[in-house]
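INFO batch 0412 | record 1 of 1 | parsing
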Amino acid sequence: MKKIIVIQLLMFSIGTALAATDNRWYSSVQVNQGEQVFKQNCASCHGQNAEATTNWKQTDANGKYPPPPLNGTAHAWHHDIELLRKTIREGGQKLGGVMPPFQDKLSAEQIDQAIAFFQSKWSDDIYAKWSGRFEETSLPSLNDVKLALNNQITRHLKKRVGNTQLGSPKKTDIEDVWQVKMQNRYVYLIDDGQYAMIGDLVDLKNGVNLTEQERRVSALDAINAYKDTDLVIYEPKGKIKTTLNVFTDTSCPYCRKLHKEIPKLLDAGIKVRYLPFARGGSRGPGYQTLRSVWCAENRSKAMTDAKNQDTVDLPDGTCQDADIVDQGYVTGNQVGVTGTPALFKATGEKVEGYVPYQQLIPMLVQQ
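INFO prediction complete | emitting tokens
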């Protein structure tokens, strides 16, 4: 019992410190990730911006209440964060609604991300009323709990890796084994974090590489955090069969080779999303050109010009959008990009290097 009290006090102090530096419990990263979660799972009923439904107080012909707005104009702000989480996990049918449970589809982290997204639509006044109403009764946020857990599980690892960035510990299906992402590698901690194993965790019975599964999910989360308007997009005229994400550099010969085959990919129904990855970072040979491409009014044409080494008409690369070039380099390192082009399928699987379109198309369309 004493240990529980100490942990609760620790989480309370952490939460208080966070509140002093930020008016809301969530981060901008959670909002961005939550937008993807929300639009894939919730928007069909609650609206793209959590604005549906206008007649949410009236039951339908079956006596069920329609999905309410979650943008702060309905009753969502009357509930503490634990009830919001529980409603998403267990659904709203018990409360007279039609919402199905998501506990088998969304993780606790994804549920918090979805909440972060729709709470970001709340006005400061509504959010202040919500936070003030539950200031004394709400439990610590999941972020606070995770922060306390991080300190406990990763304390020995942090002593050995110094300033190396560590992800949040994630419990595996194996008792007392925790997975931690260390830059673009995965570490498995055992015996309360005293011992570490680096490598892939494989389920031999079912023949599944569990680490590779996690690697793909992590890559997709990082890549999908970018909207199409952030990137250089080439989209088929007809039906989109699948999407290919490509980390590219204008100074890379094989990137140019792949770029010439973009029309073949488009004809096959493959949408191509270019993310910038300047080899060598800000000192790389393609860094300034990539910034110019991202400042261009027509990025797809500018990218083609840059790949053809025709940079005369490109802008100077000093616009705000050019900062995505630096962000892309960071993201690329996070998902294990070591060279360009680096291709990621719609499943998150990474394909190393250039692959001729004759081989690439079947790999993508028949995956």
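INFO post-check: The radius of gyration is 23 Å.
INFO record closed
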